[in-house]
Write a structure and sequence with these properties.
Chain B: GO terms for molecular function: ATP binding; hydrolase activity; RNA binding; RNA helicase activity. The complex is a heterodimer. By secondary structure, chain A is an all-alpha fold. Chain A has 16 helices and two strands. Chain B is built from 25 helices and 21 strands. In chain B, strands 4-3-5-2-6-7-1-8 form an eight-stranded mixed β-sheet, with helices on both faces. In chain B, strands 9-16-13-10-12-11 form a six-stranded parallel β-sheet, sandwiched between helices. Chain B has a five-stranded mixed β-barrel with strand order 17-18-19-21-20. In chain B, a hairpin with a 4-residue loop joins strand 17 and strand 18 (about 545). Chain B is globular and about 95 Å long. Classes of the chains: A mainly alpha, B alpha/beta.
Chain lengths: ~350, ~650
């Protein structure tokens, strides 16, 4: 924090109103004078920021970084030899990114499948319904009534996101029974959406990285090519939500071709299985679950989720192609969340 | 006063009760379940024949006391004998005689620390489970696993709302068979709910308008308006009164007199009593009747019943406490209520006769903007106290504990961090002997630690007094609300005596220094031993402070009463209200931080910044001094030597 505020010696701001130093200071007295001057300047700059502003900035900076990230940074910087509290938790079986709470099965690949039974009944299981991040602190400003202000969104749990995606998939399935003309139009729209998904996901990566929070939205960045097909298949077979016959709305031939291409790249059954378990180890079961649910959605729905994430978290509108300063700015300048309103 | 639901119905329920180990019961507030069910259970269970008793937990101590009193009256027995209560610092039971005991959920949790199987009880009733207090949530987790070990123990979970499915599922023996549910018939009347057509640009203004509209146009009946805090409430009361007087002046024949009564927890008890006053009488014998308007925070939502309320005005907001582990702040901010909360508010209109609830938001926003449930306390609280209790209870795995709702992992991490720095837990997370003693004190771990080390500073007498005064603060509000004499309830002496007994039990000496000047220094040094993780450093000259390690810009709370701005302060609370404040502060010296909390103020692992530089200067100075003198004969050095013996 302080590093950025340090003023450049040679900036004209510094020279302004001070005696120009002809040569670099040498004596102790000179050095001290310099230090004094620098401190005064910094003070001046801090004063120009209102106290309120500084309070908010400090708070936002503090809230934006999880304690796990902080612990990791400190360890990487060599200031600490690992956070003791975190290592206690790890000994109890915790991994950063997971929630607390009882898990019925040992944390291997199987829980992913076990949880499907619950999804079937439409109620996300409580064991996955636990929060991963603290409840946000959002201030309701002024006396605006409900519906006009900004509500503090509770951290969405993986289970809630999975439930939402399951609902979307179901709706898509209902649509697939519609008549030919509608279907043709939808196919066209799907293709368009698919084309846009790539750039949207890349934007998402960039903004996530800048904000330093990879865990939450990881599933949004999946695409069928990168996801081990056999894992997806297994999930789909066991899955509660039946896969539409036309997978992602794309013709079956296209899908087969891609599947073959993927198979060709990984000819050995073994390597694929390894790949799969490696994936299961690197990511939490919740994440894999979410990713597979995500992939089962139509491209339009996937695009909608990614764009909603960008809007809600970064005030970024894909159709405007810009990030807004705040909610108000977005409300005033962005015509709306969907493409039509940007015509 | 005894509710009149049919005995036959309850007898049916009791048959079920004897067949199932765990049952869930729902009934509206006022259905009498709190007073009736425990009596029926006691009569069917006959616990005293087996030397056991029935426990019924309450989230609030005042409720535990007043309900026990009412039940004792109903059963025509003396309070404290067959029927008793147990709250922190006060045990009104008679071992061997008492067979029905009302107690706070926190008390039962503490009892479990020394008796994990809760052998004394034949049946445990968790009342008001829908309030999801921290202690009730933890108890649910403990009782669920205890039920497997003690097949003879019966458990009843009582809840007011229809969120019972969550409890049924949680307590279901296998995932496919939820625990059975019973409904206690309520005595509430239908409430008609109205929404606005458009969102309101100013909810306070809209609320005032609505109250006046009701007063002008609706049938007789009192109004309950929910607002968020003292200032807002007082302001609204003034405005309503002014407008109402105007109405009466304009049209005395059609508008009756109106009285507006504020209600919030910091209000003195006599003032709070006013909510029970009857509405003003009509000005003339045949004139329009008067009306009472109560403007309240959400204390009137669950815990307090005002008879005669027929209209509820709900703008949809409340102030909620939320702890955030990342910056260790307790926020108290205005935020939208949940759907469950809105339903609870609406229900307040139907206590005496059919009522109306005016929601100052659209139906669409009710559906889309409000969360389903208010976050349970366990998700919103600092858990250091709870974690210490759980570890003392023998719960080793806090990560995979069967939480009804699991707290954020970072909150657990903060709790473990604090307990480890206080040396209550070792690096493996196991309880240390010191931690075991700390857990015995019904206090926050910081206070317990401070009290235990205070004899080393020769100020344990003073510390005991300070602690007794500080530890009752949380309950004060409830004392107010329940219009009982605060003095009688707080019984600071009683608290002191109880803590003193605990101290004696663990050989914590009671000592004082006669040198007052020195005593004052020592008291603050002892404070450092408990609260070293809650320190802020002054930056610049404008009265800003930065919290240590989290670097939050904070200000001293106006109520602090410090006439200077010391460079280093130790604080009891960091709260976020209109601004970030530290509250209840004490002036400390950097030297003490380095000396008594060397681990936490270890400069090698301290984050860079102004605070670290300030500490470094102190370390350098001390090193210089020591080197210069070649010994530690300074005043500080002498203290140190004595203490480190």
């Amino acid at each position: 924090m302080s590093g950025d505020d340090e003023d450049d010696y040679l900036s004209d701001k510094f020279l302004l109103g001070t005696v120009p130093a002809a040569a670099p200071p040498k004596t102790y007295a000179q050095l001290r004078k310099e230090a004094d001057r620098k401190a005064k300047l910094k003070n001046e700059q801090n004063r120009t920021k209102s106290r309120r502003q500084r309070e908010v900035e400090a708070r936002e900076e503090g809230l934006s970084k999880s304690l796990f990230e902080r612990a990791k940074e400190e360890e990487d910087a060599g200031v600490s030899s690992g956070n003791k509290a975190l290592s206690m938790m790890m000994k109890m079986g915790f991994k950063p990114g997971q929630s607390l709470g009882k898990v019925d099965e040992p944390l291997v690949v199987s829980p992913v499948f076990e949880d499907k039974s619950d999804a079937q009944s439409g109620a996300p299981s409580t064991k996955l319904g636990h929060i991963v991040t603290p409840i946000p602190l959002n201030e309701w400003t002024g006396k605006k009534g409900i519906g006009l202000g900004k509500r503090a969104r509770s951290p969405s749990t993986p289970a809630e996101r999975v439930a939402k995606m399951a609902k979307m998939a179901k709706e898509a399935e209902e649509i697939s029974h519609q008549d030919y003309r509608n279907r043709a139009r939808r196919d066209y729209e799907e293709k368009r959406a698919e084309g846009r998904l790539g750039p949207a996901q890349r934007t998402c990566v960039t903004l996530d990285e800048a904000a330093g929070k990879p865990v939450e939205s990881l599933y949004l960045l999946c695409n069928a090519d990168s996801f081990p097909p056999s894992l997806l298949e297994t999930l789909t077979m066991r899955g509660a939500v039946g896969l539409p016959h036309e997978y992602h709305g794309e013709p079956i031939q296209v899908r087969l071709r891609r599947q073959m291409r993927a198979d060709a790249l990984q000819p050995l059954e073994n390597s694929e299985r390894e790949n799969e378990s490696a994936l299961a180890e690197t990511f939490s079961p919740e994440l894999i679950d979410e990713a597979s649910q995500f992939l089962r959605l139509q491209a339009q729905d996937r695009l909608r989720l990614v764009l909603a994430y960008l809007r809600d978290n970064y005030g970024y509108c894909f159709w405007c192609g810009m990030q807004f300063e705040d909610e108000e700015g977005m409300e005033n300048q962005c015509p709306g969340p969907d493409e039509e309103s940007h015509d | 006063m005894a509710p009149s639901f049919t005995l036959r119905r309850v007898t049916d329920d009791l048959a079920q009760f004897s067949e199932n180990q765990i049952i869930v019961m729902v009934g509206e507030t006022g259905s009498g379940k709190t007073t009736q069910i425990p009596q029926f259970v006691a009569y069917s269970d006959l616990p005293h024949t087996r030397g056991k008793l029935v426990a019924c937990t309450q989230p609030r101590r005042v409720a535990a006391m007043s309900v026990a009193k009412r039940v004792a009256d109903e059963m025509d027995v003396q309070l404290g004998r067959h029927v008793g209560y147990s709250i922190r610092f006060e045990d009104m039971t008679e071992p061997g005689t008492t067979f029905l005991k009302y107690m706070t959920d926190g008390m039962l949790l503490r009892e479990a620390m020394n008796d994990p199987d809760l052998q004394r009880y034949s049946t445990i009733i968790l009342d008001e489970a829908h309030e999801r207090t921290l202690a009730t949530d933890i108890l649910m987790g403990l009782l669920k696993s205890l039920a497997k070990r003690r097949k003879d123990l019966k458990i009843i979970v009582m809840s007011a709302t229809l969120d019972a499915l969550k409890f049924q599922k949680y307590f279901g023996l296998a995932s496919e068979s939820p625990a059975p549910l019973f409904k206690v018939p309520g005595r509430t009347h239908p409430v008609e709910v109205f929404y606005t057509q458009e969102p309101e640009p100013d909810y306070v203004e809209a609320a005032i308008r609505t109250v006046l509209m009701i007063h002008r146009a609706e049938d007789p009946g009192d109004i309950l308006l929910f607002l968020t805090g003292e200032e807002e409430i007082e302001d609204a009361c003034r405005k309503i009164k002014l407008e109402a007087d105007d109405l009466v002046n304009q049209d005395p024949d059609s508008v009756g007199p109106l009285v507006c009564i504020p209600l919030y927890s910091s209000l003195p008890p006599q003032q709070q009593q006013r909510i029970f006053d009857p509405p003003p009488s009509a000005r003339a014998a045949d004139g329009p009747p008067g009306r009472k308007v109560v403007v309240s925070t959400n204390i009137a939502e669950t815990s307090l019943t005002i008879d005669g309320i027929v209209y509820v005005v709900d703008p949809g907001f409340s102030k909620q406490k939320v702890y955030n582990p990342r910056i260790r702040v307790e926020s108290l901010l205005v935020s939208p209520i949940s759907k469950a909360s809105a339903q609870q508010r609406a229900g307040r209109a139907g206590r005496t006769r059919p009522g109306k609830c005016f929601r100052l938001y659209t139906e669409k926003d009710f559906m889309s903007e409000l969360e389903e449930q208010t976050h349970p306390e366990i998700l919103r609280s600092n858990l250091s106290n709870t974690v210490l209790e759980l570890v003392k209870l023998g719960i080793k795995d806090l990560v995979r504990f069967d939480y009804v709702d699991a707290p954020a992992p970072e909150t657990l991490m903060r709790a473990l961090e604090l307990l480890n720095y206080l040396a209550a837990l070792d690096d493996e997370g196991s309880l240390t002997p010191l931690g075991a003693i700390m857990a015995e004190f019904p206090l926050d771990p910081q206070l317990a630690k401070m009290l235990i080390v205070s004899p080393e500073f020769k100020c344990s007498n003073e510390m005991l007094t300070i602690t007794s005064m500080m530890s009752d603060k949380h309950d004060k509000n409830w004392t107010w609300t329940h219009y009982l004499s605060q003095r009688a309830l707080m019984q600071a002496d009683n608290v002191r005596a109880q803590l003193q007994r605990t101290m004696e039990k663990f050989d914590v000496e009671l000592v004082s220094l006669s040198d007052e000047r020195k005593l004052f220094v020592n008291i603050r040094q002892a404070l450092v031993c408990g609260f070293f993780m809650q320190v802020a450093h002054k930056e610049g000259e404008k009265g800003n402070y930065l919290t240590v390690k989290d670097n939050q810009v904070v200000a001293l709370h106006p109520s602090c009463g410090l006439d200077s701005q010391p460079e280093w302060v130790l604080f009891n609370e960091f709260v976020l209200t209109t601004r970030p404040y530290i509250r209840t502060v004490s002036d400390v010296k950097a030297e003490w931080l380095i000396e008594f909390a060397a681990n936490y103020f270890d400069l090698a692992s301290f984050p860079d910044g102004e605070t670290k530089r300030a500490l470094q200067r102190v370390v350098n100075k001390r090193a210089g001094k020591a080197a210069g003198r070649g010994d530690d004969s300074g005043a500080d050095g002498r203290d140190k030597k004595k203490r480190k013996k």
